[in-house]
């Protein structure tokens, strides 16, 4: 099983912010990552009273738009093109797709969430809103926000591929419920999750 990953910016998010994160994600995955053209912010899940969107319907509407969003760029390509041409210039199909938005998200019974996952459709959604220091009324720290985005993306991509939370705190797939969970984990998968992610081999 290969691991073709696509990332889609949603709304007014700065595409360079997403691209910089995608380059780091491609490095961790040791594979190119496809960036799609930005998707408009879905109407689904909009809750103007709370200034947030409900994550589930938001992700469902984005998933419906996916086929219409052209490839913008592929990052993390090998410097020397593969002579066999196995790296397609525009792979329309992805094994895992991640939507990244700056809209604040929540699920019923929560104040807010970092994102949502649809394991059946192999798609994930993350919001950068709660990854920024400004959200907590602290001094902006773009480097910290970017590291959080990369780690949360690695988590969401693994979950979108159907992997469960990992019990290894030194793994990007360790459970992510609080910001400190993201800050303490590294920008990589443990050997076991890496194997499952890249070969589909499941531990018994
Ligand atoms: Zn793991």
What does this structure look like?
With about 200 residues, the chain is an alpha/beta fold. Helices cover about 30% and strands about 20% of the residues. The protein is built from five helices and nine strands. It has helices at about 15-30, 55-65, 140-160, 180-185, 190-200; strands spanning about 5-10, 35, 45, 50-55, 70-75, 95-100, 105, 115-120, 125. It has a six-stranded mixed β-sheet with strand order 5-2-1-6-9-8, sandwiched between helices. The chain starts with a strand and ends in a 5-residue tail after the last helix. The mean pLDDT is about 90. Zinc ion binds near residues 166, 168, 190, 192 and 193.
Distance between the termini: 18 Å
* Uncertain residue segments: none
**Which whole number gives the mean pLDDT?**
91
Biggest sheet: strand arrangement: 5-2-1-6-9-8
Order of helices and strands: EHEEEHEEEEEHHH
Strand segment count: 9
The number of helical segments is 5
Computed structural class? alpha/beta
Ligand inventory: zinc ion
Strand content: 15-25%
Q: What does the largest sheet look like? A: 6 strands, mixed
- How much helix, percentage-wise, in residues? 25-40%
Globular, elongated, flat, extended or rod-shaped: what is the shape?
globular
Indicate the radius of gyration in whole angstroms.
16 Å
């Amino acid at each position: 099983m290969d691991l073709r990953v696509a990332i889609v910016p949603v709304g007014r998010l700065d595409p360079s912010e997403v691209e910089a994160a995608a380059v780091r994600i491609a490095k961790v995955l040791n594979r190119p990552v496809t960036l799609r053209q930005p998707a408009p912010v879905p109407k689904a899940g909009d809750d103007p009273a709370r200034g947030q969107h409900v994550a589930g319907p938001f992700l469902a509407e984005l998933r419906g738009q996916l086929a219409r969003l052209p490839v913008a760029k592929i990052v993390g390509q090998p410097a020397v093109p593969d002579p066999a041409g196995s790296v397609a210039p525009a792979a329309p199909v992805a094994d895992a797709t991640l939507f990244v938005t700056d809209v604040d998200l929540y699920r019923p019974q929560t104040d807010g969430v970092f994102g949502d996952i649809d394991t059946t459709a192999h798609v994930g959604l993350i919001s950068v809103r709660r990854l920024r220091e400004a959200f907590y009324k602290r001094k902006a720290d773009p480097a910290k926000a970017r590291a959080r985005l990369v780690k949360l993306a690695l988590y969401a991509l693994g979950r979108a591929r159907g992997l469960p939370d990992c019990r290894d705190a030194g793994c990007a797939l360790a459970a992510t419920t609080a910001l400190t969970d993201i800050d303490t984990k590294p920008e990589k998968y443990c050997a076991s999750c890496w194997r499952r992610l890249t070969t589909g081999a499941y531990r018994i």
